[in-house]
Amino acid sequence: MTHTEKHLKSSDFITDIVIGMSDGLTVPFALAAGLSGAVSSNKIVITAGIAEIVAGCIAMGLGGYLAGRTELEHYQSELKREYDEVERMPDKEKQEVKEIFAEYGISADGQEQLVEEMSKDKNKWVDFMMKFELGLEKPNPNRARNSALTIGMAYCVGGMLPLSAYFFTTHPYQGLLLSSVITTVCLFVFGFFKSKVTGQPPFMGALKVTMIGIIAAAVAFLIARLVS
Amino acid sequence: MTHTEKHLKSSDFITDIVIGMSDGLTVPFALAAGLSGAVSSNKIVITAGIAEIVAGCIAMGLGGYLAGRTELEHYQSELKREYDEVERMPDKEKQEVKEIFAEYGISADGQEQLVEEMSKDKNKWVDFMMKFELGLEKPNPNRARNSALTIGMAYCVGGMLPLSAYFFTTHPYQGLLLSSVITTVCLFVFGFFKSKVTGQPPFMGALKVTMIGIIAAAVAFLIARLVS
């Protein structure tokens, strides 16, 4: 138990980095690739790339922050409702506990004994209902803010890597070539570590992540070409 | 119990639409706004916008598909491990069940009775460990594919709304003005329904969603202006 919980907690930060960087490495790279086939100035690619990174960073970061706040508020309002219900209609709530245990093959006698023991402590009873009836885990109150900052920063760092190629070249085609090399290497390395962290086979995971980036960039390039 | 599960299942589709459309309405809008302050041709804004939508659509859709596949594989490998453990070291697994119930104030006698009853049926026992020790719900095998399509389509539809303004105008400033009006209305309506679905106060929720979009677009506009 303790081990599992520790594992989950330490990986919130890593999860956020993975979320931000997955999109950060892919979308600005593909956008820049798309524009490279349609315009002839690195300046436009860089301007669009930076606008995209800023927009994505704010949308993901602020979006993540508000989603985290909502999760916390939702937990608190459900917690309050569960305390109310346990107070106002204990028999109905006891019946719900029994039904949960019935699903796991516990006999009627066993259900009765369990519910009597559990209902002695209202806090534990409510904790049980929150987790087992509603499937809600108590959220960390700082998670929303930390998550927003981490996801936003990871998106920003991820996005600047493919875009950096356009700073050091003079024509979008050269930029695209260098950007493709940089990003393919970064996607592969990132995919490798991401897979390690999430417990997938690292080499296959790295290939998948790299393929998503390359497919997105290739399709964006072709479609931007067609449009322009 | 049944009611809650139904509620969660029917909202997978809605959740995916919300995920795709949140970013779809915000990021392409902000990118187009950023470029509007830096370039003088609607064609560039449209090309960049379409490249972004394609890139975002593929990154989110394909990313969502692979994440769903990974979740399914992870569940199946943990399920196999749990069956192995129950077979090879039933006493350790019984101890883990007891520890879970000890947390909810169940007496040693109660724990003993419970674990004896539950361990009679290995499938139920393993189901219990999967859900309450590891916190894993059985994923729907079609979820990955459905999720990818829904998120990708929602992103695409969301992104075309702000971009459509640039088709009907001749200069990026006019495009930006019309796009801001269209997108603000869409963000507000979308935020209202999103909040209804997620059980938040709809008016406040709509304001939050609208503010994220406007802030992202304003910052992207200012930074693109500075860069160019």
Q: What does it look like?
A:
The structure is a homodimer of 228-residue chains. Chain A has helices at 2-36, 42-88, 90-103, 108-118, 122-133, 143-164, 172-198, 202-227. In chain A, helix 1 (2-36) runs parallel beside helix 6. The N and C termini of chain A lie far apart (57 Å). In chain A, 85% of the residues lie in helices and 0% in strands. Chain A is elongated, with a radius of gyration of 25 Å. With 228 residues, chain A is mainly alpha-helical. At the A-B interface, helix 1, helix 2, helix 3, helix 4 and helix 5 of A face helix 1, helix 2, helix 3, helix 4 and helix 5 of B.
Order of helices and strands of chain A: HHHHHHHH
Specify the oligomeric state.
homodimer
Biggest interface, CB < 8 A: A-B, 77 and 76 residues
| Average pLDDT score of chain A | 87
Strand content of chain A: under 5%
Query: Which blocks of ≥5 consecutive residues of chain A have pLDDT under 50?
Result: 1-10
Main sheet summary of chain A: none
- Helical run tally of chain A: 8
Task: Find the structural class of chain A using helix and strand composition.
Answer: mainly alpha
Query: What is the CA-atom radius of gyration of chain A, in angstroms?
Result: 25 Å
Total number of beta strands of chain A? 0
Shape of chain A: elongated
Helix content of chain A: over 70%
Cα-to-Cα separation, first versus last residue of chain A: 57 Å
